[in-house]
Specification:
Elements lengths: L1 H39 L3 E2 L12 E2 L2 E2 L1 H16 L6 H11 L2 H21 L1 E13 L4 E12 L2 E13 L2
Antiparallel strand pairs: 1-2, 2-3, 4-5, 5-6
Helix pairs in contact: 3-4
Length: 167
């Protein structure tokens, strides 16, 4: 009787052990599977530009066309809507977005432009009329009217196209 009881208890313990081994194996496999899913998934980051008119997204190494268009308009305004008093702020903001490789060359160019604006008392106003973005190349072309003023008097109005390259 004791031998049957012990044999029955041993079989019960073995079946419980096997069940726990099975559960542990399933949990380990699910952990590996979920870890792989997390590492292989592209994260989508929602960015908020200064002025939102469309849905924008960045996923992995790609961005939405709408994001490029919005940033193109924003950058074109910073570059071309200038006066002797606003160029310092605008150029400082542009330099925050510059890549390290282009920073020094861009800063030198912007400082030269700023001196030109101050010396001539030049103001410019840019009104975008068309924006074309190419997300595969991260390029934006902004077409619009650039109006120039010297000492408050309009001297020229012309159609300009500004090409921007993002990285």
């Amino acid at each position: 009787m004791k031998a049957d009881f012990l044999h029955h208890n041993i079989l019960k313990i073995i079946s419980q052990r096997n069940a726990w081994i099975g559960i542990s194996t399933l949990m380990a496999m699910s952990t590996v599977l979920l870890s792989m899913a997390i590492f292989l998934k592209n994260e989508r980051t929602i960015l908020v530009p200064p002025h939102i008119t469309k849905t924008l997204w960045v996923e992995g190494g790609t961005v939405s066309k709408e994001y490029l268009e919005e940033m193109g308009i924003y950058m074109s305004k910073l570059l071309l809507d200038l006066s002797p008093t606003s160029f310092v702020y605008n150029h400082g903001t542009i330099l925050k977005y510059a890549t390290p490789e282009t920073y020094s060359v861009l800063k030198k160019q912007l400082m030269g432009d700023g001196e030109h604006y101050t010396k001539l008392q030049l103001s410019t106003h840019f009104k975008p009329t068309e924006v074309k973005a190419d997300p595969s190349k991260l390029q934006v072309k902004v077409k619009g009217t650039l109006t120039s003023y010297v000492a408050g008097r309009e001297i020229r109005s012309s159609l300009e196209i500004l090409s921007l390259q993002f990285s």
